[in-house]
User: Fold these one by one.
Assistant:
Number 1:
Amino acid sequence: MDLVGACRVFVHVGERGSFTLGAAAAGVRQPVASRRVAALEEHLGAPLFDRAARRAQLTVFGRDMLPTARRLVALADDLGEEAERALRRPVSLAVPDLCTTLDLAHLDAEARSHGLHLDLRPVARAERRSLINAHQVRLALETVPADEAAWVVPLGLAGTHPPHTRGVRLESLRVGREHIEAPGRRVWITPEDDVPHVRDRLARVRDAVGLRPGQVVLAPSVAGALTEVLTRDDLLLCSPRQAQELSLDWLPVRDAVLERGYVLAGTDDDAGARVRAHLTGALGRCLGARTEREDDA
């Protein structure tokens, strides 16, 4: 039995002294109202209305039960309103500061179509973990190795010259003996990729193909790395989406598999489940993650 629904009908009928008016106020048909009251009487163990009277007249037992039924209905209404407010409360989500304004707007619009309200915080990688630890955001996208990730973003090298091949090998950056005094082109790693599963792997390939230690460099910011790319013909380690945004030409690295991985982390399991259920695809597009079609290629 729907106890709250039955009490709602009982209250409306009891206050109006009419099953017809009470049913209308409760938003149900009169036969439904009669069945609900009968079920409630059976549940409580005594009649609530005098069936011999011409109108819906409360019995003594019914008058005793009416105040408690009112409180139950009021509490149920309060619960529904509180649940609606909780669902409307924005879910604070820390995302990479590499996400573009347009991508974030599309993500927010997709969330709203599912009844989710997001408070998006674009911040650097290290700050995302700090915000979670300090309980300043409910959720955050954290970087992890690709084999642990929900979203995987391919990384390659981007520069200012149009590509003439389908990929680039790091060994092609090796400084020849005839140019021993030349500094050599550098590969810049931005703070988002300053993690062991990217940085250390790239360093191992650097050493294996004979590049100089200074040819793989950590950048303090994307803007700083981009300046070096534009002025010195260096290369930026980034995703295809980033390269497009920065008007650079992107190529995959042929002698190393370099990827960013992301998972959704946080302290709010309910919000996390809702985001995963409705926004997995939208988050992937925002991050520039590899699609299933690309995985199969």
Note: The chain has a mean pLDDT of 90.
Number 2:
Amino acid sequence: MPTNKATADASLLLDNQLCFALYSASLAMTKFYKPLLDELGLTYPQWLVMLVLWEQDGQMVSQLGERLSLDSGTLTPLLKRLEAAGLVARVRDVQDERRVHITLTAEGRKLKAKAAKVPNCIREAAECSMTELVQLKRQLHDLRGRLAAAAA
């Protein structure tokens, strides 16, 4: 009986929680990103939007939301701020005005060159080889997929 109680107690220790390890790592990551992104004039969610647009410009708001797992209530104000900063333009679809395309402005495209240093800064701070980072990223993607499937 004591073994079961000890096991149950250990399973409830904060440091034994995968969710806390992921949460605290995420906090550390965004804290490290902050000064790098401040130099670019971006918040972390704005950074994610810009990454997606640098990958493929002209996406619809719904595509961005799907790719970033953000709803339109979160994404729309974020896009408005990026537009006010002159980095993106919101363009209504001529065939269906409910659809809005997000396109990079010249300033938004120009920012990509400045942003190119950020991933290397992260890699250096993590003190991981490229192989280790690729493996970790793959493991996290796999974990996310399994958890999403279990929740569905």
Note: Helices lie at 2-11, 18-40, 44-55, 61-68, 72-84, 106-115, 118-126, 130-151.
Number 3:
Amino acid sequence: MEKIKRFQVSQRLVWGSSVLLAVLASIPKLFDTFSKPSDIVINSSITFLFSLFIWYYNIYSLPKFTTKRTSKNFVNGRLFVSVIFGIGFMVFLVVAHQELFQFAQMDAPIMFELRGVLINLIVYMFVHLLFQNYQTRQMGVELERTKMLNLGAQYDLLKQQVNPHFLFNSLNTLKSMVDINDPNSSDFILKLSDFYRFTLESRKLDLILLKEEIEILDSYVYLLKARFEEGFELLNEVDQKHLNVQIPPFTLQLLIENCIKHNIVSLEKPLIIKLYSENDFIVVENKIQPKRGVLSTGVGLDNITQRFAHLIHKEIEIEKNEILFKVKIPAVYDNHNN
């Protein structure tokens, strides 16, 4: 992926254009029968030095391109300041040359000032256009970087959605149910099928309704309860009025999976997870009962954080104390394109 580079202007362009402007400014002197070669050189040197000054002034001070963005408007206060500084510097150059080369025949000061304003406008226009092109390329690089981050988050999400361990455990549970002729085996197969069908249908969506997410979660929870029996329970206390808010798909499933990964789930110590709404947040809460030897990598929560930051530009909130662990995910009320 291309890196963002600092704004720069080719030194060949700066020096080459300054020499060219000096040559163009000397053309009238070539047709003046009273002009000497030394007069042409002295007058040209004023234009050359002025052009260099204006180039570097605009590059580094109009604005400081390496630290902040500039306005897209061509005419602004910085142009006015540039013209004033240019007029002042031209006066300095003319006076200095008159003092150093009193023998030379020089153009009238007003001609130098008019020439300086024209050069100032031309250089400012070039720098302005070059910087706008730089900003466009910079935004392209930033967009590409954002796309790469989003693709990485989606890939991580997909790996967790079709978790081989979860599938392996589910098939083992199904085998055990079939071996004992459990009458719920057919329902288990249907729920497992529903869950993976939801996975395939929803993986390309950015946002889905909370009520649709809960439907996916119901199938997932059914599979978990078949595995853990009374050792796992999900209490759904979401207010009905929040069912039409939107969240990224499989957010709740990932949070439930994260709870199971880091907490003891057993008949002796059941894991009870609460799902409820609180203001503009959907909250997943569980009592902390950590497993021994399980280190948190933060991958699951990082994945969710990246998706929320990319899709709705909001952050999830995590609250933790000695007893409870809460993850509060912001809900979207307005319509987004899926």
Note: Residues 163-330 form a domain with the Heat Shock Protein 90 fold (CATH 3.30.565.10).
